[in-house]
Amino acid sequence: MRYTLAVLLLAAAFSCKKERTTTSPEEREALLRVTEIENAYNNDAPETLKVSYDPLGRISSSISGDKKYLFNYQTPSALQISRYKISDNTLVQTIDCMLNTAGAITKETYRNASDNAIFYTYQYGYNADGYMILAEAAGYNNSYKWEFIYTDGLLTQSKYYEAGVYKSITHFKYDASVTNKTNLPHWWTWASSMLYGKPEKYALVEIREFDTTNKLIRHWTSSYQYDAAGKVLTESKQSQLSNDVQRYRYKLQ
């Protein structure tokens, strides 16, 4: 993660006799952050998500359509996110988040702004390396759970449960020649490389999901293209079970 890299670079600077004033291409790439994501499904009009950051590199706002989320880091272990309706600037929801020592969310509590009533919660677990290994959701009289399995720093499988009943397993495949320049993990609600654990280092190129009868129920493949400066990434996802196509365009800085 970014703050871990900063610590390592600081330690290296103190251990050298000559101060280093430049960073390598690999280090600059690791520090890239998403500032905009354009998402288009089939021939629908694209939707655009814009993200900004505070001086510490933490996500501070997320804007899409008529929704604006503002991030208030109250303490090292507490974050409150406020959702506003942009057209009339009304507060719609608040999301109270608990953070672990690495800055990743361990619990999200969603409340209606009108009556402060809780209507949804998420809980997350992470392994010693900082990768998300568990996600649990509860609300609207139902519950959901995802278990994530990692091999050599890559998410290889996930198991999905609904109301405690096992429903499906998903397999993930990567291209080791394509770096995950978005620095986003597989699971994220807000486009942050810190709030949902450590991101995978390579680009995801295939997802296959099977139900309890081993029937293939979801199969997507992805391809990637960068601009010459490596600051704009286009991802094209093609369903192998239908003609559906989803395209993402990421702007990085």
TrEMBL record:
It comes from the Bacteria. This is DUF4595 domain-containing protein.
